[in-house]
Amino acid sequence: MRGAGVLLMLLSACSLVPAAEQLTRREDVRQFIDDVSRRNGIPAEEISAALSQARFSAEVVSAVSQPAEALPWHRYRRIFLQPDRIQGGARYWHDHDEFLRLASDTYGVPAEIIVAIIGVETRYGRNAGKYRVLDALATLAFDYPKRAPFFRGELEQFLLLAREQELNLLSVRGSYAGAMGTPQFIPSSYRRFAVDFDGDGRKDIWGDHADAIGSVGNYFKEHGWLSGGLVALPLPAGITPADTLLSGDLEPRLTVEQLSENGLAPPLPIPPGAKSKLLALELESGREHWLGFWNFYVITRYNHSVHYAMAVYQLADEIRRARESAVAAELKGKPDA
User: Fold this and answer.
1) Residues designated as active site
2) Could you tell me the domains of the chain?
């Protein structure tokens, strides 16, 4: 049976350690094993064998409790809007132009947005995470009560993914939250949105940049990306919108009429019917305000953070400029240019 061999490899990969033995003896873990077994038709003994290899990680709990997205905008922005990440994005675009063009045509997502996502997530595949995904997900599933239900779901998805793709659970590494590969997909996202973009028969988001690029494009399309739609627009400096227009809801709900009534005229015309969300971003002194549109909201489906989505958008814009400059310089240097 496909998948069973993977778990047999796990059994022989390393000996059990006391902490792991204790994990599978816990009542909540036993209940999880039984539930996953019943839902998916996997023998409970196989699931128990896999989880017996998991190790608790205090570092994972610490990291997930202090996300970078909690930083003020001006500090968060400096992490990603750096010359090396911008130039790295331009080089990545150059190196993978064929598949970026194809992804943009197939899914309607601009190449620079796809590149920026990969740049923010893993520096273009160079930093895909150091944690064993099994350890990270098991730790958060059973020893991080704040989000335990979510991570138990992802742990189940990871076990299913390992069977489907014949992955060795002990060798897969990723982020402290269990995100994997060049685009940092959590297991459920891999199973729903990863694609075999180069047609080689595998959905490889680790070593195959074509698949990573196509998977990001597919993710955005499936979340409703509007081809050619607005992402975000800055409001004029010095404007002070009423705080009542700010909401914790990420979905855009302000109509063009509401913007006009509150003196929030954007620098460019907004298509009739388009809705926006007022964004207030903390600077070292004061705040700047933007309008985020539907495509901005779609970026937050990748990471539910205004800071994250704005970093992706601004990095994408800088990468596009750097790419255009590089192409212009290349054309200028050609004899027939």
Assistant:
1) 121
2) 18-52+128-209 (1.10.8.350), 232-292 (no CATH)
